[in-house]
Amino acid sequence: MQYRKFGEISWKPSALGFGAMRLPYEDDDRGKIKEDESIEMIRWAIDNGLNYIDTAWPYHDGNSEELVGKALKDGYRKKVKVATKLPSWEVEDPEDPDEYLEKQLERLDVDKIDFYLIHSLNRDRWEDLQSLDIDIFDWMKEKREEGKIDHLGFSFHDDLDTFKEIVDTYEWDFCQIQYNYLDQEFQAGKEGLKYAADKGLGVVIMEPLRGGKLAKEPPESIKKIWNKAEEEREPVEWALKWLWNQPEVSLVLSGMSELEQVKENVKYASESGVGALSDKELKIVNEVAEKYRDISPVECTGCNYCVPCPNDVAIPRNFRMYNQAEIYDEYDKYKEIWDENMKDESKATNCVRCGECIEKCPQNLEIMDLLEEVSEYFGE
Fold first, then answer.
1. Do 306 and 330 form a contact (C-beta atoms < 8 A)?
2. Which CATH number belongs to the domain containing residue 45 in this structure?
3. pTM above 0.85, yes or no
4. In terms of residue numbers, what domain contains 348?
5. Nearest CA to 71 among 22, 117, 110?
């Protein structure tokens, strides 16, 4: 395993961090995690050098934190740093942060959270936090003095200017941003990455594979571009090593859902390093990114923040089917699935445009309009 610089913190993180957001779950119940399988995955990763586990209050309907706590029994806690997050959208009263932190310490069954983030900050949530009767950063520092938090950070989904403002407002230890070769100019992007690193922050990368999109078997148009490279690599390896090629990246989180994925990603991390890709290879990655942007109708990462929908629309699944049908030129296949295998209430046509999903989407997608587009596409 390779270890990297983490801002001005002396501790060095493994190049790969374990994101406990996409753990294997039972059938269609995302909240019911396959416990034994998930614990095996986490412990295998730790045994092979991974030292950073990331979870959050809402992941798997709140069960992710408890699962991580169970995985860190039997001596594993002392081998890793644990990160979790204060749900910024739930904080309305001055006493809320304390209530969430205490519940998270209980869920994780730990005395201290090593890396504590304000979760999913955007302009509106940032302004809401500023209007509270308490200073949220002073509160975090107070909890650090009490020994309940070690390092202070935030995760982010909004524009570059908002990101810079948040970075500059407080003396953060680290931040977490969405970044991959498709998102170089999206949200914080490459400029935000460099900005935070220059300010001395550790920068944690989420969505390195765009919700798994960059890990899939690519369509022929993408394969032709990858084949220009002298060294053959799997799509996942390209995406991860492109990130690790950059010195500003402190660690890359991967939301792994199978043990084989863990083993593959640990292998790639062990072979990673700054400057590992040539200029020619970097040009190939940028060419692939441009091609993907041309052929993808919806920029959904499948994070599932938008569900459950009050009208039972399976929003991410509708977008995934739309993207797959377009990217792989398989309209007939997905049209058949739409017609014969999807429940009527799950289809995009069941959207009543209530707007509840809009404020939940970290990608700021116009979900209602896109669902209408999906509905028209599949012929309803």
1. no
2. 3.20.20.100
3. no
4. 315-377
5. 110
